[in-house]
Amino acid sequence: MLCIAEKAVNVKGMSACLIGFIKAGISEKEIIKKLEENLEKEHLISVLSRMYINYLADSVEDKSYLMKEVQEAYYISQRSGIVAQFLLLVHPYVRKYAGISQITFLYDSYRGVYEDCWPRGLLPNMKDTLIKSKVLSSKEVSILEQLDRLINMQEELDSMEVRKLYEDSFEGKDPLEVIFTLPM
Question: Of 112, 139, 160, 184, which sits 20 to 30 A from 40 (CA to CA)?
Fold first, then answer.
């Protein structure tokens, strides 16, 4: 906790360490209590959201206000990753400059996304969960399914069909607003 309070460890390392404590038998409730005592709220939510999916989703504290904020932060994290990869495929500037940009993507280039046949790996196992948890809307999942179909049918990502998916997805809104707003 001293390292955490002094910010001597990054969020990823901190989360991994705390997950180790949970695996060793220390309760989630005790870890959350100690974190609340030693971290400001934003940092606390950041750490807990990295631990959320595997270790805190079924926590006794799940109904608390804090855990609702942690859950929302986790869902925003998931959503932002999905939409960022979508942009890597459908937006020509993102495709061209992602490798030299200071913005971090799951893949270094659109080629990695394309070769990995994304979103094919995401949708079959996660579609219902993504919709139910409101990480993505049904419409957004449908757009990703159409993108997957287009990826499998054609190699050209600059087609009018792909451009239409971009327009349908963002509906004239700022992509950053869409990325960081969970569907209703």
Answer: 184
